[in-house]
Amino acid sequence: MATATDGSWLTALVDWSVSLMEVVGPAGAGLAIALENVFPPLPSEVILPMAGLTASRGSFTLFEALFWTTLGSIVGAFALYGLGRWLGADRLRRAAAHIPLMHAEDIDRTIGWFDRHGGKAVFFGRMIPIFRSLISIPAGVTRMPLWKFGLLTASGSLIWNSIFVFAGFFLGEQWHVVEMYADILQYVVIAAVGIAVGWFVWVRTRALVRHRREGRGDASTATGDQG
Q1: What is the DSSP letter of 174?
Q2: Are 138 and 85 in contact (CB under 8 A)?
Q3: What is the mean predicted confidence (pLDDT) over 151-161?
Q4: Which helix (H) or strand (E) holds 89?
Q5: How many other β-carbons are positioned within 10 Å of the β-carbon of residue 101?
Q6: What phi and psi values does residue 76 have, to the nearest 5 degrees?
């Protein structure tokens, strides 16, 4: 059996995924992907090639691998969509008011952006590591129509899943070559998120410091006038 990093937790995940598929069949691949959507640390870049590899060995067909993994993606996405609807905009606004450097208006701006670009965000987000799962939450918060969310999720997931399922099916034991490129993409995404968060903190901190300085200056001026 091919493993990406022998002796690691990833090896155990590969073994578990293949065993699940061999015992349950293609539905096992769907179950594994549904769990991956709800628990993002589980890497689809490993589970999906295993579905293709297992299909190449005759345990089930390539079509079944694609169908069940995409169905699993949809089920997992709707679970997080439901979480987003439960949270709602009001809860997020109240939470933002208690988070350092954040304001309730940030939630409103994010919702406004998602109302304009949510369709593209959900579709392309299904093909971006980390965001694949998380993009379902703002879709739920903004109450994107269920049919639209389901269609966009299914379309984006089918493209992403096909790449890795085909890799496992046609590359066999060399499936991890594709995983290597997926890892690079994931590192790029993590770096981009880190830079964006760092920029946000820097801008908000500067604004907070400037506001406090202006407040002290106004207080000093008022004291001088009274004197």
Answers
A1: G
A2: no
A3: 95
A4: helix 62-96
A5: 14
A6: -65, -40
Please state the domain count of the chain.
1
- Token pair recorded at residue 29: 């691949």
Query: pLDDT class for 173, splitting at 50, 70, 90?
Result: confident
Coil vs helix vs strand at 143: coil
Q: What angle do CA 9, 69, 4 make, to 5 degrees?
A: 30
Q: Residue 81 in contact with residue 157, Cβ under 8 Å?
A: no
| Residue 192, domain member (yes or no) | no
Residues in Cβ contact with 146 at an 8 Å cutoff, skipping those fewer than 6 apart: none
Helix pair angle (146-171, 62-96), 10° resolution: 130
What gap in Å lies between CA 220 and CA 59, rounded to an integer? 78
Instruction: Quote the domain boundaries for residue 60.
Output: 9-176
What would the pLDDT profile of 57-96 be if each residue is shown by its tens digit? 888 999 999 999 999 999 999 999 999 999 998 888 888 7
Residue 21 lies in a domain: yes
Q: Shortest CA distance to 113 belongs to which of 138, 83, 147?
A: 138
* Token pair belonging to 160: 């992403």
Is 132 inside a domain boundary?
yes
26 and 51 Cβ atoms separated by less than 8 Å: yes
Instruction: Fill in the DSSP letter of residue 5.
Output: S
Measured distance CA(173)–CA(61) in Å, rounded: 18
Q: Residue type at 142?
A: T
Nearest-5° Cα angle at 56, 54 to 62: 90
Q: Quickly state the pLDDT bin for 4 (edges 50, 70, 90).
A: very low
